[in-house]
Design brief:
Layout: E1 2-7, E2 9-10, H1 14-30, E3 35-37, H2 52-55, H3 65-77, E4 80-89, E5 92-100, E6 106-111, E7 135-136, E8 143-145, H4 154-163, E9 167-172, H5 183-199, E10 204-209, E11 211-212, E12 225-228, E13 234-238, E14 244-249
Parallel strand pairs: 1-3, 2-11, 3-4, 8-9, 9-10
Antiparallel strand pairs: 1-14, 4-5, 5-6, 7-8, 10-12, 12-13
Helix pairs in contact: 1-3
Length: 254
């Protein structure tokens, strides 16, 4: 398996982010990747503010025009693509992720279960959560998603482990409350915590953090990526604050 974990600069405007993702997909294909992973809310950033008038337009239907474009890129380049995005389903909003196969078809659609992607006072009729752990077969083994805070919920992790995936795709959008892109703090406090939690899943974990533009939010997600072995060893990492691609090469399960 050759995977490309893409940290693109998430800017205002869905079209601009889709275009950047399409360019990254082409570059990943040229470099020999078979699987591309983008972060949580890759089309917009996690810039929701609990006001439906602001937040609902950030969401995309699944399936819909955005997933069709990503699927077309997967088909064009004959690779698998996974990305997080805010999902609009009528007048409800979910924090979701999709996996498109090399044929452009949707193989996995996951809705974040843990609710802290929105505020406690957000209208529960609008801001919703999923309730299912789903697994899809692929050339890279059995694949599952968790999104951001899901990884720190013991019950969700136990359910994931029971599903026995070989590969966990983990898009997230993490920031520090002071707005800093503090690499030393990440290395000291956060990286070991994420690796420890990933080890509880019992499978190889590919994780990509969003790198958000500072303009729409006071506390932008600061980027970075990691590949974590089933035992919790960090196999590869990409630094905070820098767009780029973390590449991983490993063998699919037998």
């Amino acid at each position: 398996m050759r995977a490309a974990l893409v940290i693109h600069q998430v800017v205002p405007g869905i079209e601009a982010n889709l275009a950047a993702m399409e360019a990254s997909i082409g570059e990943a294909a040229d470099a020999g990747a078979g699987l591309v992973l983008f972060p949580e809310a890759a089309l917009t950033g996690l810039i929701n503010n609990d006001d439906p008038a602001h937040d609902l337009p950030l969401g995309q239907p699944i399936p819909g025009p955005a997933t069709e474009r990503v699927g077309a890129a997967a088909r064009q380049h004959s690779l698998w693509i996974a990305t997080g995005l805010l999902e609009r389903d009528g007048d409800t909003l979910f924090d979701s992720a999709v996996l498109l196969g090399a044929d452009g078809e949707m193989k996995l659609h996951y809705r974040r279960i843990q609710p802290q992607w929105h505020g406690h006072s957000a209208d529960p009729r609008v801001y919703r959560q999923g309730d299912r752990i789903v697994v899809a077969a692929s050339p890279f083994g059995r694949i599952a998603f968790l999104i951001c805070g899901d990884l720190f919920d013991d019950g969700i992790v136990a359910r994931l482990r029971d599903a026995k995936p070989d590969l966990l795709l983990f898009p997230f959008a993490r920031n520090f409350g002071d707005g800093s892109f503090d690499q030393a703090r990440w290395d000291r406090e956060e990286e070991p915590a994420y690796a420890t939690r990933a080890a509880l899943t019992g499978c190889l974990t590919l994780m990509v953090n969003a790198l958000e533009d500072r303009a729409p939010t006071e506390w932008p997600a600061f980027g970075g990526a990691m590949v974590v072995a089933p035992q919790g060893d960090i196999l590869a990492r990409h630094p905070l604050g820098h767009p780029g691609v973390l590449r991983h090469r490993g063998n699919p399960p037998s």
